[in-house]
Amino acid sequence: MPTPRRAEISGAGFAGLTAATALAKKGWSVRVHERAADLRTEGAGIVLWGNSLQVLDKLGATPDLESRAMHSPYYETRMNGEIRSQEALEGVRWVSVTRPHLYKTLLYAAREAGVEVVPDSEVTGATPDGVITFANGESAEADLIVGADGVGSPVRDSLGIPLKRERSRDGITRFLVPRRKADLQALEPDTNWDNYIDFWNLEPRVLRVLYVPCNEEETYIALMAPADDAEGSKVPIDLDVWVENHPHLAPLLEEAARLPGKYYGYQTTRLDRWTEGKVALIGDSAHAMCPALAQGAGCAMQNAWTLATAATEASDVELADALVEWERLERPYTDRAQDRSQYYADTRQMAEGNQFQGDVIETALYNPTDPRRHEVAA
Ligand code: 5PR
């Protein structure tokens, strides 16, 4: 048996854990470094589409994920109180889960695959020839280094890769709250509260609530307001303002008002390049995007998988070139997801309903695990 090649990964988020598990399953010896002392996520809920679900299938993590997940019958969109669409999304795979649940699922898969996850391990940077450095002064050598360390990525910044950041006018505060289904049903008996419902209020005021049941007990709600609306973007939330605009959601808004919350302005970041020598960047470090299409983590997981595949198929001497080729082939999918998400964030056009068709679902339908995915149809 040859000694396995070694990968060091900065960041135990969704991108880092996915890359780690994929690499370990392909025979690599993998360590993931997490700056935080505890291995957990602060996030609320998330929608996963076919592209990331195919990756979870390959990691063997789907049964775990599905053990606590929601398949809403319809993707419903309302504008100014009126139902605009109820999309069944036939042929599109999608599921809603809490972020803590996805996190546990990935962490378990990583450990099962033999990944070493190291909390309290702060990475300060990496070099193109494969040295990763830590805040405690130590360093380590690897055949592959992955920077999956978020929008403020120390690995990316240590390499001096230029980046462009675009901010949008809107932003969001996210909560996990109890479902309170009976209370909602009492307020609005005709609504199917198992639906995913995007309540867009644009008039008289832009205050949107995205309602996403994640399992029998928990609902993810995302409260969107323009950054320049001091009341709408305030945390803890201004209960009176939100209930006045979304009275049918009062039980959930009351739950959210008890939680601290953090308002995040939407932003897109684009890099000159995703790789440098033996280092590759994935996730928000490489391609942070607006959440309109719910594909930030989806693209991160898709790129984590394809990166692991490309690195495994290349010999050690070819690795840097293989990473460049990986970016050339895979990046356009993410670029388009970023462009579309930015467009919808800027125009708020998803409020019109019936948005999940045509080009918009390209990312959801992409299968990063299909070895023939780049073959041109004859
Ligand atoms: N979709 C989802 C979501 O979580 C958000 C948005 C759209 C699933 C907010 O994070 O447009 O902001 C959005």
Give an overview of the whole structure.
The protein is α/β, with parallel strands linked by helices and 378 residues long. Helix content is 33%, strand content 26%. It contains 12 helices and 18 strands. It has helices at residues 14-25, 50-59, 62-66, 99-112, 154-159, 181-187, 239-245, 250-257, 284-287, 296-313, 319-347, 362-365; strands spanning 6-10, 29-33, 45-49, 75-79, 82-87, 94-98, 116-118, 123-126, 131-134, 139-141, 144-147, 163-178, 196-200, 208-213, 218-226, 263-271, 275-276, 279-281. The strands form 4 sheets. Strands 5-4-13-14-15-12-16 form a 7-stranded mixed β-sheet. It has a 6-stranded mixed β-sheet with strand order 7-2-1-11-18-17. Strands 8-9-10 form a 3-stranded antiparallel β-sheet. Helix 1 packs parallel to helix 10 (296-313). The model has no long low-confidence stretch (mean pLDDT 97).
State the gist of this model:
The chain is an alpha/beta fold and 378 residues long.
Proportion of β residues?
Answer: 25-35%
The main sheet orders its strands as: 5-4-13-14-15-12-16
Global Rg: 21 Å
Count, helices? 12
Q: What class do helices, strands and sheet pairing give?
A: alpha/beta
Major sheet details: 7 strands, mixed
The separation of the N and C termini measures: 41 Å
What coarse outline follows from CA principal-axis ratios?
globular
Which oligomeric state applies?
single chain
Determine the mean pLDDT: 97
Unreliable runs: none
Number of E-state strands: 18
Bound ligand species: ligand 5PR
Strand-and-helix sequence, N→C? EHEEHHEEEHEEEEEHEHEEEHHEEEHHHH
Specify the helix fraction band: 25-40%
